[in-house]
Amino acid sequence: MPLEQGQNAPDFSLPGAGGETIALSGLKGRKVVLYFYPKDDTSGCTLEAQGFNALGEAFAAAGATVVGVSPDSVKSHDKFRAKYGLTFPLASDEAKSMLEAYGVWVEKSMYGRKYMGVERTTVLVDADGKIARIWPKVKVPGHADEVLEAVRALG
């Protein structure tokens, strides 16, 4: 069942890069930008991560925490963060339970071959833990700026 604006964001607790645990309940009282991406260190995912990273201070000033989520391992996340100097947390959902809860683990198709994968999606959660906005099928260029505007508009 797809998520909708206004409903409570599904809680989660996942291992993150650097040995941290990332839980939505632990971020209560802050706006949270959850961006779901397919794979560490691929061109689109790297550009998206760099976009959010470049605006890190602006997101923090707007009272928001950015969290990247993919099915990659913590070890992969650690390498990805180190390689690009990423300053925000990356959550690892190898079991895909959170990806499924947020409706972003979907059947995809490439060159006629069907497979399961992450649909690039961003979810903005307000300080009360409700979904404020959803961006499905994200196109990377300019996306982080658009999300930052939405965070600021939440006040």
From TrEMBL:
Active-site feature positions: C45 (cysteine sulfenic acid (-soh) intermediate)
GO BP annotations, alphabetical order: cell redox homeostasis; cellular response to oxidative stress
Domain Thioredoxin: 3-155
Domain of life: Bacteria
Known EC number: 1.11.1.24
Keywords: Antioxidant, Disulfide bond, Oxidoreductase, Peroxidase, Redox-active center
Gene3D superfamilies to which the protein is assigned, alphabetical: Glutaredoxin
Gene Ontology cellular-component annotations: cytoplasm
Tagged with keyword Ion transport: no
Claim: Ubl conjugation is one of the keywords in the record: no
GO MF, any single term: thioredoxin peroxidase activity
InterPro entries: AhpC/TSA (IPR000866), Peroxiredoxin_AhpC-typ (IPR024706), Peroxiredoxin_BCP/PrxQ (IPR050924), Thioredoxin-like_sf (IPR036249), Thioredoxin_domain (IPR013766)
Catalytic activity: a hydroperoxide + [thioredoxin]-dithiol = an alcohol + [thioredoxin]-disulfide + H2O
Enzyme class: oxidoreductase
CDD domains: PRX_BCP (cd03017)
PROSITE patterns referenced in this protein's UniProt entry, alphabetically: THIOREDOXIN_2
Entry similarity comment: Belongs to the peroxiredoxin family. BCP/PrxQ subfamily.
Summary of subunit composition and partner proteins: Monomer.
Its job: Thiol-specific peroxidase that catalyzes the reduction of hydrogen peroxide and organic hydroperoxides to water and alcohols, respectively. Plays a role in cell protection against oxidative stress by detoxifying peroxides and as sensor of hydrogen peroxide-mediated signaling events.
Name of this chain's protein: thioredoxin-dependent peroxiredoxin
Organism the protein comes from: Methylobacterium gnaphalii
